[in-house]
Write a structure and sequence with these properties.
- With about 140 residues, the chain is α+β, with helices and mostly antiparallel strands.
- It has six helices and four strands.
- Strands 1-2 form a two-stranded antiparallel sheet. Strands 3-4 form a two-stranded antiparallel sheet.
- The chain is elongated, with a radius of gyration of 18 Å.
- The two termini are about 15 Å apart.
């Protein structure tokens, strides 16, 4: 049933992105406001990494610090996406079968894959939510 479905049919095309020099506080704000868990990092229209909400949380200051709130805020403002992003990003092409993308996510314990075209140009992103949406819609389309 899903053998002929490709990533392009279910991916998000208009992807919010970050640049390597974006402060992580800005990336965190975007993720919070938009309810997303990852931002592909793009430089000169090419995918160079990905930053997740988990990366941002790991980089956040610990409560067990002796620094003042002003010192913490200053240090936090200096930290950029490029310093915390994952650089070796697993990606797929738009014509990748959706089942292959799902298998890749499952095997690598990740919840999203940037979709890239020629030269690493970001074309979209496919996430576990997109795959869940496919499953639910196909169930509705083919009732028992």
């Amino acid at each position: 049933m899903f053998e002929n479905i490709i990533v392009k049919d279910w991916m998000t095309h208009d992807v919010l992105t970050a640049s390597p020099d974006m402060p992580i506080s800005d990336a965190h704000q975007i993720m919070k406001e938009r309810g997303i868990r990852r931002l592909p990092v793009v430089e000169h229209e090419k995918l160079v990494g990905i930053v997740t909400i988990g990366d941002v949380r790991e980089a956040s200051p610990s409560d067990a610090t002796t620094l003042s709130i002003w010192e913490l805020n200053y240090l936090w403002a200096q930290l950029t996406v490029g310093k915390i992003m994952s650089k070796n990003v697993l990606t797929v092409k738009a014509d990748t079968p959706i089942l292959d993308a799902a298998e890749m996510m499952l095997e690598n314990k990740i919840s999203g894959l940037p979709v890239v075209g020629k030269g690493g140009h970001l074309e979209g992103i496919i996430t576990e939510s997109d795959i869940f949406r496919l499953l639910v819609r196909s169930r509705v389309a083919t009732p028992d």
